[in-house]
Model the fold of this input.
Amino acid sequence: MTTKVTLIPGDGIGPEVSAATQKVISASQAPLEWEIVEAGEACIAKYGTPLPDHVLETIRRNKVAIKGPITTPVGKGFRSVNVALRQQLQLFANVRHLRNLPNVPSRYQDVDIVVVRENTEDLYAGIEHMVGKDAAESIKIITREASERIGRYAFELARREGRKRVTIVHKANIMKLSDGLFLESIRGVAREFPGIECEDRIVDALCMNLVQIPEQLDVLVLPNLYGDIVSDLVAGLVGGLGVAPGANIGAMGAVFEAVHGSAPQIAGRNLANPIAMILSGVEMLKYLGFDQEARRVEQGIDHVLRHKEYLTPDLGGNSGTQEMAAAIVESMK
Ligand code: NAI
Done:
């Protein structure tokens, strides 16, 4: 029995890092079948939309997708495909596993943090209006239902992955009702998980902790806006975009993707670092229950990162995207 997954290569460096990822993830011997579909600007001429219905349908059918980055025009043109996917598939959790990797420049050691960001509400619900000519109002929505759902996801993840502590991040000292509800809802969920420590921190204090004592933090659960900012902060702690994997999880399925964009300046030149997307593939393997295969890929990545001759230019080496992937495949044999 094979498991079918949807692969959206994306544009810019997307096709290169996707090809590298497909090669490495297939070499893990997980029984996957790839259904490759296009999304983004190239689809507009053909289908009149960057996210055609048949793409959504394959993801709904397969329940799992992995995608490369897609260029979003600034200020004009189509809406972000990522935002549309999140909304259409109700992907309520944005999850990033961020840890220090060998030879990836970072000021820190021993950082190993999972950021769990609520993906559907908060100030990102997009409810804004002008109040007269000279004032604007943006409405922050927090519900018990969405807060409990993200809280439960964070605690279940902690239990599944053998993690010790979940930190609820908020600003409930100021936003007593909205952030207060987020905090109270997740504290309620925490009582169902007596084996996992639950604590909370105010978001500004958390940011200071992240730069001073990041090795002491474990799983963080945050509302949408703080989650957006803190997940980039933590990606920066472990070496930035080239190595940060991501996942968007919903009740009906999941879409895995690297955190970085389409890097048009280096597209088509075999220069892109494929690690972030390969690590997103590792998250996909774990999600599908292929833990052994996931570990095999992680060990391959760790091995290759220890050897300067396999590193891409962003990590100070001269290797190409495909050569790095081939070295990971070789080290997994
Ligand atoms: P970017 O992530 O594409 O690039 C930022 C910097 O990081 C550039 O210097 C780039 O060369 C470098 N970089 C990124 N990924 C790399 C990799 N794998 N290996 C080596 N270097 C890498 O961000 P930017 O420039 O803000 O966005 C470019 C386009 O990507 C925009 O159209 C944006 O909307 C889109 N984007 C798409 C995302 C997605 O589809 N998930 C996420 C973020 C941005």
Observations:
- The chain has eleven helices and twelve strands.
- The first strand starts at residue 3 and ends at 8.
- The radius of gyration is 20 Å.
- The chain has two domains: 1-99+240-333, 107-237.
